[in-house]
Write a structure and sequence with these properties.
Chain lengths: 413, 413
């Protein structure tokens, strides 16, 4: 039985050195994509010495209250000064406008009064003040966004400032999804006796998209060798194949055998994780590159945990972000601990902070691995280490993996 | 000058009772959308008493080690039992398969040995064991997802289980975006003297999409009354209009006047927030409903903060999630405090937890309101209350608003 760390090491070895393929997309479609290369600024920001306030630019900061200056020019944002200023000359300048050469400060309008020709200073500025120097924020050539960074709204603004109208981003990995089992019916069917709707494909497709990949839903393969092998062949046309169900050791768990018959090499067949011990990982070398194949268990909780803990890191690696375990935060756990065992346990929790700034992970309702709704009720997974003694008291700390960012941001629970 | 709370109250009053319009979308396109109505389960889950393990179903749990049973039938997942069991009859059952009537426990294969006709029990089960009762997870008619909930990957699975192949979700609000100022040039232009690229439209478009709205980029309006009014008229065809720039009291700050000339009623013109004091909020009644108009400041930091703190709650209200301030977490702040003032200050921070489970907000580099990159470096905004004394020591607590969920989840910093 592989630990989580051993499973990730197997994926790293199977993938080898990842050559990330890229494409150029319009800025308006770049949100959530991952940058393929460093983005450098093409010019100084700001590109000129500019006014940080609406006011009068002066050539001296040694001013007494009551001093007067001749208004020689006016510079709006988008304009250029008509020339330098010196001595008792002043320039009316707007926020964001270039200040004339020779200007050493800008006195805000509120500190002055003027008749259009002459301005009188009422309050004295400190020096240098309300002028932003050229290149103060970023110098030409500086890296403003690094390769492997996800494109956030603020990053879109940085790309726009750098003149990158069509950034190079990593191609989304294409993930084929196959639900297996003769008991499965499509979502729009009413299940007959003994049958259940295929919910795993929908969850997995959402997890793929959330992780930056494209989901290709290949539907249901029944417990029939020919049908299953045909679905596997179709799935292997994609970068990653994720199946659910059929990987236990039951009489009709045909998935491992069919995968091996299609040339997929088994890397391991169980991992020491609960929910979802049976998890088949394999890889196949094809002319198009390495295909990773994940045979997730059939129960919804095992699917969700296996995808978040193992498939998401693999997809991140394919996106050029490096292969790393999921990020964890440290939180105080509130809820039942269950029985410690030889397997690492993952349980849904709801995150919040208390008034002392402590991150608190409250157990979400959990009715066991077969419950399709248990994991929808949490915004993170708490990690109970394998074979660890039960913590006690108020200060029971656990690692948590945030998984539902929308909840964390919107606080909908 | 309005506080954040007064500004939100103005939006609530201008919007009145929001009637959310909905549409039906295929499950594969529902990720990130907001549910219009409660989703109820159409059947018991599980829909039948089912086996939770591969093993032998028995009609008694009073078993001694060495007891033998006749193997009368086998039930695979997706099949139905051929009849009830009683006495010394056993049924071979697979995980997920219905157990025959009369079954009270399932003894896992590992605890038995058999010759195909007779099974011998090696270890004795506790009772009742490895059978999930009908309706144990959810009963028919129970609400499994509530109106106003965002659709997460786990929610997709719940929708699929409930047979909802085309959920009703709130229409995305359509947000028109206009950057104002003659100094602005499009992203793919090289700025000449005094000019800068329009980065705000790209950031705002990303913020819209992240908040569940559609962004309609109407480009740049120069400091010209006719051009600006034409852009405003085009913008008022959408649910929300967001402008940036031109709302200070400078000579060319034409936005407020042009908005009022187009019939938009001013609700307020400044709020007590830093960065971005000038912020014009207005509303116009149209046959299509109330149009909200946000005149954000021109500097990138003021745009970002104004959008996250004020526009996002408005968009959430239009999505049927209710009008509420942004969710905050409580964190220990590490960084400079700056000078307390009469305005509420927002600063970019990077979130992590320490080994005691404390949420720590570390100041991200910040070069002032005009820096287009300062806010891209944080994953949350720290909130410094107006006019509060500076905290001191190790336990300085602040509220933080998480804003870049990708960073929080992926830990890319």
């Amino acid at each position: 039985m592989h630990t989580v760390e051993e499973a990730l090491a197997q994926i790293a070895e199977a993938l080898g050195a990842v050559r990330v393929r890229g494409e150029s997309v319009p800025l308006a479609e770049a949100l959530g994509r991952v940058l393929l290369a460093d983005v450098r600024m093409d010019h100084d920001v700001p590109p000129f010495r500019r006014a940080a306030m609406d006011g009068f630019a002066l050539a001296t900061a040694e001013v007494e209250p009551g001093a007067t200056f001749r208004i020689e020019q006016a510079v709006m944002a988008g304009e250029v000064p008509s020339g330098p200023i010196a001595g008792d000359a002043a320039a009316r300048v707007m926020t964001g406008a270039p200040v004339p050469d020779g200007a050493v400060c800008v006195v805000p309008f509120e500190w002055t009064h003027d008749d259009g020709q002459t301005v009188t200073i009422d309050r004295v500025p400190r020096r240098p003040v309300h002028i932003v120097e050229r290149g103060d924020h970023v110098a030409a050539g500086d890296v403003v966004l690094a390769a492997g960074a996800p494109v956030t709204p603020a990053a879109l603004g940085a790309l726009a400032s750098a003149g990158v109208a069509a950034p190079e981003v990593a191609l989304r990995p294409r993930v084929a999804i196959v639900g297996t089992g003769s008991e499965l019916v499509p979502v729009d069917h009413t299940p007959g006796p003994g049958a259940i709707r295929n919910s795993n494909n929908a969850t997995i497709a959402g997890q793929c998209r959330r992780a930056g990949a494209d989901a290709v839903d290949l539907g249901i393969a029944p417990d029939d060798e020919d049908a299953l092998r045909a679905a596997i062949r179709a799935g292997l046309e994609h970068d990653v194949l994720v199946l659910s169900g059929g990987v236990s050791r039951g009489d009709l768990d045909l998935v491992p055998g069919c995968l091996e018959a299609e040339g997929v090499r088994c890397l391991f067949h169980r991992w020491s994780v609960q929910p979802g011990g049976p998890l088949w990982l394999g890889a196949k070398q094809t002319p198009g590159g390495v295909r990773l194949v994940f045979g997730l268990p059939g129960n919804p909780a095992g699917v969700f945990v296996g995808f978040e803990v193992l498939v998401v890191p693999a997809l991140r690696a394919l996106l050029g972000m490096g292969l790393a375990p999921r990020r964890t935060l440290r939180a105080r756990y509130q809820g039942p601990w269950g029985k410690p065992g030889p397997r690492r346990r993952f349980r849904p929790v709801i995150l919040a902070t208390d008034d002392r700034g402590m991150l608190v992970a409250r157990a979400a309702p959990w009715r066991g691995s077969g419950d399709p709704f248990g994991l929808a009720g949490g915004d993170a997974l708490a990690v109970f280490p394998e074979s660890a003694p039960l913590p006690s008291g108020d200060h029971a700390l656990v690692d948590v993996i945030p998984v539902h960012e929308a909840d964390l941001l919107w606080g909908t629970r």
